Amino acid sequence: MGCDTFAPDVNGAARFAERLAAGLVERGHTVHVIAPSQTVFRTGHWDETHAGARLHMHRLFSLRWYPHPWLRYMMPWTIRRNTSRILDQIKPDAVHFQSHFVVGRGLSVTARSRGIRVVATNHTMPENMIEHTTLPKFMQPALLKWAWWDATKILKRADAVTTPTRRAADYLEEATGITGVHAIGNGVRVSDYTPDFEHRGSRIVFVGRITGEKRLEVLVHAVALLPKSLDWSLEIVGDGEQRHHLERLAAQLGVGERVTLAGLVSDAELKQAYTRADVLAMPSTAELQSIVTMEAMSSGLPVVAADAMALPHLVHDGENGFLFRPDDAQDLAAKLEKILTLPDEEFTRMKKASLRLIQAHDIERTLTTFECLYRGKPVVDPVTEEVTEGR
Fold first, then answer.
1. Strand partners, 235
2. Which CA distances in Å does 233 have to 15, 107, 210, 368?
3. Tens-digit pLDDT profile for residues 188-220
4. What's the pLDDT tens digit per position in 103-134?
5. CATH class belonging to 12-187+362-375
6. Between 224 and 137, the higher pLDDT residue
7. Which residues of 25-54 are buried (b: 16+ CB within 10 A; e: fewer)?
8. In sequence order, which residues have a C-beta less than 8 Å from that of residue 275 and are 6 or more positions away?
9. What SUPFAM superfamilies does its record include (predicted)?
10. Topology of 190-360 in CATH?
C-alpha cells in the first residue's frame, strides 16, 4: 500500500489507509505500507502498530512542505528506485496506492513493469491543493489544468480505480476521462463508537483539519447567531493553519468563551468528544465522503452539513439531520437551532436514523470489496449512498 500521507497524520486519506490496512491484517493478509518518514533522521523498514494491527512500514526520507501545517513529501526523483527495491524484496500480489502525487507515481510504473496488479484510490481534488502552493492567483488555473492531466496519466496505469462515493466517482470520470471508477466507501467500524441516549444538551462538535477548505469561519459566524438562551457550546477538534485566526474571530464575535479549540487528540479522546456532543456541524464543501461524518453517525449524532459534494449521501435532510446552503452562516445557524430545540422524541429519532443509515458503510463490506479488486474478481460496488424520496 502506497501512501503520501499516513498515520500519525490526521486526515481522511490517512485514516482510511490505516483502517483498510489494519482490517486486512485482521483478515489474515500481510500488509506492507510505503509512507513518508516523520523526521529526516529516521527512515527504513520496521513494524508499527496502527488501529490495533501490526503493519510492515517502509518509511522513506521526506521533508516538510512548509506552506502546509503538517504535510511531508518524499523525493520524486528517488521514488522509482525505492519502490523497485521494495517490490523486489516483498514480491506483493497486489499494489494499492492512495494518492498519485509521489508514491503512486513510482508504484504505478514499477508494479506494472513486474506484472503486479494495481489498484488506485483517489481521495483528493486538485482544487483543494491549490491553496497550499503559495502560487499567485493568476497562475492557479494553469496549474489546476496540469494537475488533472498529471492525475489522469497516473490513475490510468491502474487496473482498477476507486473513490469513496458515486458522486465523487462521476466527478473523477468527468475530470479524467477514466471510465468504470468504483464507488467504494471508506468504511468505519461502527461498533467502535458509543452513542449516548441518556444525556442531552446543546453541544456542537466539529472534527477535522482547521484549513480554508473546511469553511470553519462560516461555522463560527453561525454559532454566534444562535440564541444565548440555548446555552450552546462548540468544540473544534483538530489543528491547522487557521487555528489562531478562528480563536481571534470567536473573540471578535463575542463567543470566545463558548468555542473550544481542542487541537489534536487521541483516538479515545476523539470518541469521547463524539459521545458527549449533541450534533456534528460539517460546513466543508469539498468532502469526497467525510469519514468524520461517518464517525459521528456511528456515535448516534444528528448532522448539519453543507449541501455539497458527497455530504447529501450521508445526511438525509430531515431524517438524520439537515443540509444547509453552502457558505450561508444564517442557514447553518437556523438548522443547528432546529436540531438543538427538537422535542426529545424527534431528537432520539434522528439519532437512531444516523445509526441505521451508517450500517451500509461498515468497514467489513469495504474490506470484502477491496479483496475482490486485489484478486481481479468482478465486484458490485457497495451501496455508498442512499437517496431519500424527493432528492
1. 205, 260
2. 27, 46, 18, 40
3. 889 999 999 999 999 999 999 898 889 999 999
4. 999 999 999 999 999 999 998 876 666 665 66
5. alpha beta
6. 224
7. beeeeebbbbbbbeeeeebeeeeeebbebe
8. 193, 194, 195, 196, 299
9. UDP-Glycosyltransferase/glycogen phosphorylase
10. Rossmann fold (3.40.50)
